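call fold(seq) -> tokens
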Amino acid sequence: MSMKPTIVRGIVAAAALAVTLTACSTGAGSGGSSASGSSSAASAPSGSSVIDRTLTATVGPNGEKPTPVSELTLTDAEVAKLQVGHYTAAQLWHTNSQFVSAVQAGAAAEFGRLGIDVTATTNANMDAGTQANQVQTAMAKKPNVIIGLPVDPTSAAAAFQPAVDAGTKLVFLSNVPKGYTYGKQYTSIVTDDLYEMGKQAAEALGKALNGKGEVAIVFYNAQYYVTNQRDAAFRTTLKKEFPGIKIVAEQGFSDPNNATSIANALLTQHPKLSGIYTSWSQPAEGVLSALRTVGNTTTKVVTLDVDDPVVVDMATGGNTVGLVADKAYELGKGMADAAAYALLGKTAPPFAVAGVLTITKDSIPQGYQDSLHSDVPSAVQKVLK
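ret:
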């Protein structure tokens, strides 16, 4: 989760959740996510680390094995059946961002191909109460399916209950309301290939450093499966594939706004730092700010999710050497296909994941296309050479 995605801590204030949900590809920055229950985030105990040293592959919030969204396929006969079914859908998103726009576009295009009419598309602006009202408003149109991301999984259990009671099929991005069970209240969870995102980030940094140097990890120190798995994959892959690189510091944060001060401290303690990894692009911006302040042009930065300011830094020869993003448009298409499965009475996978790509300075235009299905924004286009 490009992103975008997205990412949230679950027993912390809603304002803090808003900052992170836009990051995770699904949630970072994928996206792309929110607050409590098995699929949410909770602050880690003081002095602890949420980086799992044993993780070897992406798993769902309840241990589900991932299914690539590309495996959600429909026959010509099934598409024809959907096209004459007069089905309707609502898209209820947590916020507005480049990532969410791409997911929404992917879903809308697939719904259009299947003849499913989208009757409502909303943005809750990271407010759980607003989302609850939007569910009620959407239900007045009696949609057959709803796709979206719950702002706060705890309160979302009650917010989405009218849809459950009406038999509306629910497909969620990254998070699921607390207490909801696959196959009963919801059809599927769709998110990033989390381990692959962290793995590719490690490979991007390792190659940029030619396999040697000292590296720091600035990670999201809260119990949230999306970021936890991405961070763990980065650490595991770097140690396994680049034995000449030494991880000299692992510093957690609960508020991405603290990334600048964290980076300042790391640079003071480790003046020869060759590289820094951050959990997603917003804290990466703080790290880049700290590097610019001290005139450091040599420490290389890798992070996750497409974010224009970080892309601009990379495009202009700054510290950023790589971004790893999910295929957000593909996420949306997968959500629509999972919803179609439910309408047809087919069993959708409980946990589906989208593809991942690494974006470097030389592949920025293609990266926007592959991740967000969009052209390079004008602000970025101006600095591309």
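The first helix runs from residue 14 to 21.
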